[in-house]
Design goal:
- The complex is a heterodimer.
- By secondary structure, chain A is of the alpha/beta class.
- Chain A has helices at about 5-10, 25-35, 45-50, 55-70, 70-95, 110-125, 140-150, 170-185, 205-215, 235-240, 250, 285-290, 300-305, 305-310, 320-340, 370-385, 425-440, and strands at about 45, 105, 130-135, 155-160, 190-195, 220-225, 245-250, 260-265, 355-360, 385, 390, 405, 410, 410-415.
- Helix content of chain A is about 45%, strand content about 15%.
- By secondary structure, chain B is an alpha/beta fold.
- Chain B is about 40% helix and about 10% strand.
- Classes of the chains: A alpha/beta, B alpha/beta.
C-alpha cells in the first residue's frame, strides 16, 4: 500500500521543516507540524463537530489579536474594516456570490439562523403561515424556530429525512410530501430550511433540486443551513439558488473558532431588512456592515481568512484536492469498518462528503440517545476514540425495510469524519474498540460512567 | 514622576497580609511598577495611551492564560465541551456574583459586551409590545448621552415595536447631582402624560461621551416611586471604575463590560437580572438547544465559539489582587490620578473640567482651549486623528455645541482616562501637544476640506 512508506517518511520529518520535499498531505507531517497541539494518542475522528485549526492559522490569529491590544483605537479606525472586507471578498469568490454586499461574516450558523428567523418572523401576517424543515435539523435550529417562529404564531411542518437513505429521489419525495402538507391548510409557506449536509444523521442532501421545488411550489424564502459545507463540498450559490445560505468556516475550512459566512441573495428584497440581533451604531447600514461591528470583541477569526487560502493552496489541488481526498478516505474507512463489524453504511458513497454514517453492531444495544451518549463517553475515556454516536429509533412505517444486521435490528450508527490530519490508524483503533466491546459482551447500558 | 508620591509605596498599615511575601519588608509583595510596565509592554510605546475608556486593556499574563485555554480547546474540543466549559463558566459567574453583591447565582449571565446585554433586555421589551403586554405608545426613558449602540438598540427593538422614547437632557458641563435628578424627574413626568405607562428606564451608570458619573441609586429610587416598570442600568464603564453593588443600586437589570476596566481580554461582560423582577423571560438572541433553561445557561452556550475570555476571569481576580487594596485600591488611585491630571491640564490650558471631581471615576472631561475652534463632531474626529498621527497621543474628543446666547465658550473637551499602566508623562505629552497647536495658531478649519 503506501502505509509503511508513509511511516518511514514520517521518521525523517523534523519538527517544522520547510515544505517541499515532503508531501504536505502526509498526515504524519501535518501532525508533527500543523497539528502538534492535537491531543496525542486520541483517535480524533469527529472533525464534524468542532473542526480544527492549523498552527499557521493560530499564529496568524495571534498576530491580529496582538495588533489590536497594542493600539486598539488605531486598529478600530484604520485596520479592522478594510481587512474584514478582504475576508468577505475571499468568501465571495469561494462561493460564487455575485456581489460583495451579499456576504456577511458572523460567529456561526446558529447566529445566522437567528438573523434569518428574526427577519422571517417580522414578515408573518396570516394565521396559517408555515415554516418547513427537516425533522433532523440541528437542535439549535429547532429551538430557534420555537423562539422566533412558533412564538410568533406560525406553524412548523417537519419533513422526515429517510435514513438510512439510498438515493436523492427518496429525499426529494419526502420533501414534496412535506411541502404539500404545509400548503394543505391554505396557508403560505414563508420559509423552507434545508440542510446542505445534515448533522445527525449525516447525509448530503440534493439542495439544488429541493430549492427548485420550493420555487415551483411558491415558497416565500429558502434558507440553506450548510454548516458543514465549506471545505466539504464545492459551493456555488448561483447554482443552488437559495435566498440565504450559511456555512461555518471553522468546521472544514481551518478557521479558528469561530466564524461563519451568511450569504443573502441581493435579488431577494428582504435581504435589506436583515439585521444582526446585537445592535450597534451601524444599525441600518446593511447586514455586512452591522455584522462587522457588534461592539468590542475579538474579530481575529474573521480576519485570518486570506491566510487560510494561502494554507490550503499549499496542498495539491488546493481546497478541491483536500475535499476529494477527504471524501475518498472517509468512504474507504467507512467501508472498512462496516466490513469488519458486519454492518452497513448509512448512505451510498455519493451521498456523503467528508463524513459518513456507519452502522454499529446491534449487539451493542443502542436503544436511546442516552445509550448513544454513554457509548461515546466510554469510547473517549476507555479507548481514546472521539466519535459521535447516533441513535436511530425504529420506524413503524418502514416495516421490513428497517436496517438489519446479522444479529438484529440496527439502531445505532456512528458518524466518522476524515480531515487532513487523520491516519488510517485512527479508524483501526475505533474498529478494534467496538470489536472489543462486542467481544466483552458489553451493551450500552453497562457503559454508563455516572 | 519624582514629585508625585508613588502610589505603590504608601505604607498603608491597613493592607491585608500578602499571599506570598517575597521579602520581610512591608509592601514588596505587591506588584511593582516595573512588573506593571512589563505586563503592558505590548502597548505601543510611542503612544500616550490616555483612552482606556474606549477599548480597555489586557495584561500579558492574562493574555497568556487565555491562549492556554484556547489551546486546551483546540487540543481536544469534544472533551473540553463536555467536561471543562460549563464548570469554567460557572466559576467565573460565581466570582462575579460576589464581586457585585448579587443575591443569587442565577442572576448573573455572561455575554460578549454591554451591547449584547442591551439587545437581550430590549428584545424582551419588543416581545412585550408584540404580544400585547404593553400598549402602543408606552414609554421608555433614556439619557440623551446614552451610548450610540444603546440608542440604536432602542430604535431597533422598542420604537419599531410601537414604543415611544423620551430623552433626558443633561446639562454639560454639569455641576451637581441635583441638576441631573431635576432633568430626570422632568422627563419622567413627560413620560407619564396622557396616562401612558413608563415601561423601562435606561440609565447609564457612567456616561460615555461626555463622561459623568450618574447618581443611579437615587434615579432608581425615583423610578420606583414613580411606578416605572423596569430599570436597566447600562454600566459599561462600571466594574473596576466605580462602586458596583446590586443591592445598593437596586436596578432590575445591570450590565458592565469586564474588558474595559477589569483587565479581561476582549470581550466579556456580565448581565445581572434581579430575581424579583416581574418579567424574567429573557433570552439570548442567538438560540441553541439550551433555549428555555434560563438566560445564564443560554448565554453559556451560543454555538461553537471561543469562550476563553469568559473562562479567564479567575486569573483576572488573581491579577487584581496583586495590587495594594485589590480592585478598590486600583479604583481609588485611578480616580485620584485622573483628577490630578485633569486639573493640571485645565490649569495649563486655562480651561475647565466638565464636572466636579466627585462626579467622575477613572475618566474626566477636560476643556480644550477655545482658540482651537472645534465646531462639529467631524472636527473632533479629525483633531483626534491629528493628535494620534502627528503627536502620538490617543485621546477622544467631544464637541459641546454652544447654546443660545453662549459666547467664547469651550466647545471641545478631551476625555482622559487613567489606568494602572499610565504615567504622568502621558499627560505631559498631551499637554505639550495642545500647547504646540495653540502656539502655532492651529484651528480645526485647517483640518477641513
Amino acid at each position: 500500500m503506501g502505509e509503511k512508506e508513509e511511516l518511514r517518511n514520517g521518521d525523517y520529518v523534523a519538527k517544522k521543516p520547510k515544505l517541499l520535499k515532503l508531501s504536505i498531505s502526509d498526515p504524519e507531517y501535518l501532525l508533527a507540524s500543523e497539528f502538534s497541539h492535537h491531543e496525542p494518542g486520541t483517535a480524533r475522528i469527529n472533525n464534524g463537530s468542532f473542526g480544527c485549526c492549523p498552527e499557521s492559522i493560530i499564529a496568524a490569529q495571534r498576530t491580529w489579536q496582538l495588533r489590536f491590544l497594542k493600539q486598539p483605537d488605531h486598529f478600530y479606525f484604520s485596520t479592522l474594516r478594510p481587512n474584514l472586507s478582504k475576508s468577505r471578498a475571499v468568501v465571495k469568490t469561494l462561493i460564487n456570490a455575485s456581489d460583495l454586499d451579499e456576504v456577511s461574516l458572523v460567529d456561526n450558523a446558529t447566529t445566522a439562523a437567528a438573523i434569518v428567523l428574526q427577519q422571517v418572523g417580522r414578515r408573518f401576517s396570516q394565521i396559517n403561515d408555515t415554516v418547513v424543515m427537516f425533522h433532523c435539523a440541528f437542535p439549535a435550529i429547532k429551538k430557534s424556530i420555537q423562539a422566533y417562529v412558533t412564538r410568533a404564531g406560525a406553524s412548523v411542518i417537519e419533513v422526515r429525512l429517510p435514513f438510512p437513505v439510498n438515493s436523492d429521489s427518496e429525499i426529494i419525495a419526502e420533501f414534496r410530501k412535506g411541502l404539500s402538507k404545509a400548503k394543505s391548510n391554505g396557508g403560505k409557506v414563508r420559509l423552507a430550511i434545508i440542510d446542505h449536509i445534515t448533522s445527525m444523521p449525516s447525509v448530503l442532501v440534493p439542495v439544488r433540486e429541493l430549492v427548485e421545488i420550493c420555487r415551483e411550489q411558491g415558497v416565500d424564502q429558502v434558507f440553506v443551513d450548510a454548516a458543514h459545507a465549506i471545505g466539504s463540498v464545492p459551493i456555488d450559490v448561483q447554482e443552488i439558488g437559495a435566498d440565504f445560505y450559511v456555512s461555518n468556516l471553522y468546521k472544514w475550512f481551518f478557521a479558528p473558532p469561530s466564524v461563519a459566512f451568511l450569504y443573502c441573495r441581493k435579488s431577494n428584497s428582504s435581504s435589506s431588512t436583515m439585521h444582526h440581533p446585537v445592535v450597534s451604531h451601524e444599525y441600518g447600514n446593511g447586514l455586512p456592515i452591522e455584522s462587522s461591528w457588534i461592539g468590542t470583541r475579538d474579530y481575529s477569526p474573521q480576519l485570518v481568512i486570506p491566510t487560510i487560502i494561502e494554507f490550503v493552496n499549499r496542498f495539491e489541488g488546493g481546497i478541491e484536492g483536500i475535499m476529494a481526498r477527504n471524501h475518498e478516505q472517509v468512504v474507504k474507512m467507512g467501508k472498512m469498518l462496516a466490513e469488519s463489524w458486519g454492518t452497513s453504511l448509512g448512505s451510498p458513497p455519493e451521498m456523503c462528503a467528508s463524513m459518513i454514517m456507519v452502522a454499529l453492531p446491534s449487539k451493542l444495544c443502542v436503544t436511546s440517545d442516552d445509550d448513544a451518549f454513554s457509548l461515546r463517553s466510554h469510547l473517549r475515556e476507555k479507548y481514546k476514540v472521539e466519535v459521535p454516536i447516533y441513535y436511530r429509533p425504529p420506524n413503524e412505517d418502514d416495516g421490513e425495510n428497517e436496517p438489519r444486521h446479522k444479529d438484529g435490528l440496527i439502531t445505532g450508527y456512528t458518524r466518522i469524519s476524515h480531515q487532513i490530519y487523520n491516519k488510517v490508524e485512527d479508524y483501526y483503533k475505533f474498529r478494534d474498540a467496538i470489536n472489543q466491546i462486542v467481544e466483552n459482551q458489553q451493551v450500552c447500558k453497562m457503559l454508563s460512567t455516572k | 514622576m519624582a514629585s508625585q508620591s508613588h502610589p505603590y509605596l504608601n505604607g498603608d498599615s491597613n493592607t491585608h497580609i500578602p499571599k506570598k511575601p517575597k521579602l520581610s519588608s512591608l509592601s514588596s509583595s505587591f506588584i511593582t511598577e516595573a512588573e506593571i510596565q512589563s505586563e503592558f509592554s505590548h502597548h505601543d510605546s510611542t503612544i500616550a495611551r490616555i483612552n482606556n475608556g474606549s477599548f480597555g486593556c489586557c495584561p500579558s499574563s492574562i493574555s497568556n492564560s487565555q491562549q492556554h485555554l484556547q489551546l486546551q480547546f483546540l487540543s481536544q474540543p469534544d472533551h473540553f465541551y463536555f467536561s471543562h466549559l460549563k464548570p469554567g463558566i460557572l466559576r467565573s459567574r460565581t466570582l462575579l456574583q460576589s464581586l457585585i453583591n448579587a443575591q443569587h447565582l442565577d442572576e448573573i449571565s455572561i455575554v460578549d459586551n454591554a451591547t449584547t446585554a442591551a439587545a437581550i433586555v430590549l428584545q424582551n421589551i419588543a416581545w412585550s409590545f408584540a404580544e400585547g403586554k404593553f400598549n402602543q405608545g408606552d414609554v421608555a426613558i433614556m439619557l440623551h448621552y446614552a451610548y450610540g449602540a444603546v440608542k440604536k438598540s432602542i430604535e431597533a427593538y422598542l420604537t419599531r415595536a410601537g414604543g415611544h422614547v423620551i430623552e433626558v437632557h443633561l446639562p454639560f458641563p454639569v455641576n451637581s447631582n441635583e441638576e441631573i435628578v431635576f432633568e430626570f424627574r422632568k422627563a419622567l413626568e413627560k413620560g407619564k402624560e396622557n396616562g401612558r405607562k413608563v415601561r423601562l428606564a435606561v440609565i447609564d451608570h457612567i456616561t460615555s461621551m461626555p463622561t459623568v458619573v450618574i447618581p443611579v441609586k437615587e434615579l432608581v429610587r425615583i423610578c420606583r416611586e414613580e411606578g416605572v416598570d423596569q430599570v436597566f442600568v447600562d454600566a459599561t464603564h462600571g466594574i473596576g471604575c466605580t462602586d458596583v453593588d446590586m443591592q445598593d443600586i437596586g436596578a432590575d437589570f445591570y450590565t458592565s463590560n469586564l474588558h474595559k476596566w477589569f483587565f479581561c481580554p476582549p470581550s466579556i461582560a456580565f448581565l445581572y437580572c434581579r430575581k424579583s423582577s416581574q418579567c424574567l423571560d429573557l433570552h439570548h438572541p442567538v438560540v441553541t438547544h439550551e433555549y428555555g433553561n434560563g438566560l445564564a445557561v443560554e448565554s453559556a452556550w451560543i454555538g461553537a465559539r471561543d469562550y476563553s475570555a469568559q473562562l479567564v476571569v479567575p486569573k483576572v481576580f488573581e491579577f487584581v489582587d496583586r495590587f495594594e487594596g485589590g480592585i478598590e485600591g486600583i479604583k481609588k488611585r485611578n480616580h485620584e490620578n485622573v483628577v490630578k491630571m485633569g486639573q493640571m491640564l485645565a490649569k495649563v490650558w486655562g480651561t475647565n473640567l466638565g464636572c466636579p471631581p466627585e462626579m467622575c471615576a477613572s475618566m474626566i472631561m477636560v476643556g480644550l482651549p477655545a482658540c482651537l475652534g472645534i465646531s462639529s463632531d467631524l472636527d473632533t474626529l479629525k483633531l483626534r486623528t491629528h493628535l494620534r498621527d502627528k503627536f502620538g497621543v490617543e485621546v477622544p474628543i467631544y464637541y459641546r455645541a454652544p447654546k443660545d446666547g453662549e459666547v467664547d465658550l469651550v466647545t471641545g473637551y478631551a476625555r482622559i482616562s487613567y489606568q494602572v499602566y499610565n504615567k504622568v508623562d502621558d499627560y505631559h505629552k498631551f499637554r505639550d501637544a495642545i500647547n504646540e497647536l495653540v502656539g502655532d495658531g492651529f484651528t480645526c478649519t485647517l483640518l477641513r476640506g
